[in-house]
Amino acid sequence: MMPMPGRWLSCALIRCGPSLTLVDCGEGTQVPWKALGWGFRQLGAICLTHMHADHVAGLPGVLFMVAHAGRTETLDIYGPVGTGYVIEGLRRIVPELPFPIQIHELKSGENFPLPGGLRGSCVAASHGIPCLAYEVLGPPRRGISLAFITDTRPTKQLSTFAHDVDLLICESMYDNAEDLPLAKAHAHMLAEEAAGIAKTAGAHALLLTHFSPKITDPLGPEKAARGVFANTRAARDGLVVTLEYDS
Ligand SMILES: [Zn+2]
Ligand SMILES: [Zn+2]
Question: pTM of the predicted model, to two decimals?
Answer without folding.
Answer: 0.71
